[in-house]
Specification:
This protein is about 30% helix and about 20% strand. The protein has about 425 residues and is of the alpha/beta class. The chain folds into two domains: about 80 residues, Urease, subunit C, domain 1; about 300 residues, Alpha-Beta Barrel (TIM Barrel). The strands form four sheets. The chain has an eight-stranded parallel β-sheet. It is globular and about 65 Å long. About 55% of the residues are buried. The structure holds zinc ion. Zinc ion binds next to loops.
Length: about 425
């Protein structure tokens, strides 16, 4: 394997909480502690850029097996590489659902080492919400978290059991907050734009009632609880309460809930490009989610990358599937929101895509020290770019962020010492 020396850039390491202008050497897949290099190495000039370890998207849907016309592990890995993502948390709602140890192993095999993968196993068999999946066996096979994402785990007794088991296993329960009765039939947020367009809405409470319920269950039964794609102020209040109690409850924000509101429905009209679950919320909710990310109440920024084919998204609004393709806009979005706009330091701005997701799954990562896996992303923070879905490597080209200017461009991505993206080209 080639040896590299990255030179001229700034190491931005949220794991060590260190920013340093220094060369970084990589050999045999790992970071080499600084020493006069004797072995031949390739010099990689990265003037003006940052090098960031272990950028992670905790919430993606790669659709493989079963719906590979939407995405498969090849296109998903290529999209991750172009997006500067070196680790992905993959949701289990494939066809069939990842609800067995064999299915977990299959996800790891499909990733093929070209991206680091944290398989998320289903909480319930078939994600039907009735009986527990074989959690311990799936953990032994490599599952790093459990979720029925795509729908909520609604049965409170099963949720209590999952949290009790989480206390022993150390693996988090990731909840998709959506009360299926309150939200039934809703395709957008129940607000003024929905009324004007005559579209059935989901109230904010269909999310927050489950957030309040689940933090109460976490207080009673213990365990680690992670609230996926928080999008309304009530959910943030439930999370804040849990934090105040010292509970290991965490929460996540998505790019689209931070950058768009339900007023975008009026702009896009019938186009299901805005259709996503949870739905785009009113501007006040959007601002609350952004503020919670800035304050550190929300410690994870994840794309909820949910690709669909263009034909599927072209269906009438009510019939079209929920989902936005987001893995290739993750880094631009987080730097735009937290570094450019909120003026956080690079370390703080990148924490929700590095340290935050690692804390959720309880994975220790050393940062850029000798022997650490060389999972690196080179970012030009000063480059702004325009989102153009036609250039996505993902098969899903659906995003309402098309045309938006984002700050911070991915220059190169390396997984385990191998470039997966470099000079505008995907190498996997
Ligand atoms: Zn979800």
């Amino acid at each position: 394997m080639t040896a590299y020396r990255f030179t001229g850039g700034l190491m931005v390491d949220p794991f060590l909480n260190v920013m340093e202008r220094t060369d970084l050497q990589v050999r045999d897949g790992v970071v080499v502690s600084r020493q006069p290099g004797t072995a031949p190495e390739e010099i990689v000039r990265i003037d003006g850029c940052w090098v960031v370890p272990r950028i992670t998207d905790l919430h993606v849907h790669f659709r493989d097996p079963g719906q590979t016309w939407k995405e498969d592990w090849v296109s998903g890995v290529r999209a991750a590489a172009a997006g500067g993502v070196t680790t992905v948390g993959v949701m289990p709602n494939t066809v069939p659902v990842v609800d067995s140890p064999a299915a977990v192993s299959d996800q790891i095999a499909r990733a093929g080492g070209r991206v680091r993968v944290w398989p998320i196993g289903a909480l319930s068999r078939g994600s039907r919400g009735r009986e527990a999946a074989p959690w311990a066996a799936m953990q032994a096979a490599g599952a790093r978290a459990f979720s029925d994402d795509g729908r909520a785990l609604y049965d409170p007794a099963l949720m209590a059991a999952a949290l009790s088991w989480s206390r022993h296993s150390g693996l988090p329960v990731i909840q998709h907050l959506e009360d299926p009765i309150l939200a039934a039939g809703g395709v957008v947020h129940a607000g003024e734009p929905a009324r004007r367009l005559g579209l059935p809405g989901q109230p904010a409470a269909s999310e927050s009632v489950l957030a309040f319920r689940d933090v109460a269950l976490a207080a009673e039964y213990g365990g680690r609880l992670h609230l996926a794609h928080c999008s309304v102020p009530g959910t943030l209040q439930a999370l804040g309460w849990a934090r105040g109690q010292g509970l290991p409850v965490t929460g996540e924000a998505t790019p689209h809930h931070c950058l768009a509101s339900d007023e975008w429905l009026l702009r896009f009209g019938d186009d299901a490009v805005t259709k996503v679950n949870p739905p785009l919320r009113p501007q006040a909710a959007q601002e609350a989610v952004r503020a919670a990310l800035v304050s550190g109440l929300l410690t994870v920024f994840a794309s909820d990358h949910a690709p669909h084919s263009a034909a599927e998204k072209a269906a009438p609004y009510v019939a079209a599937p929920f989902g936005i393709s987001g893995i290739e806009t993750l880094i631009g979005a987080v730097l735009t929101l937290l570094w450019r706009d909120a003026r956080l330091s690079p370390l703080k701005a990148l924490a929700p895509v590095t340290v935050g997701p690692h804390q959720v799954v309880g994975e220790a990562f050393s940062g850029l020290v000798g022997g650490a896996p060389a999972d690196l992303t080179v970012i030009d923070p000063n480059a702004a770019w325009t989102v153009d879905p036609a250039r996505f490597y993902s098969q899903g080209r659906n995003t309402p962020l098309a045309g938006l200017r984002l700050q911070g461009r991915v220059v190169a991505t390396m997984v385990g010492g191998r470039f997966t993206f470099r000079d505008g080209e995907v190498l996997v």
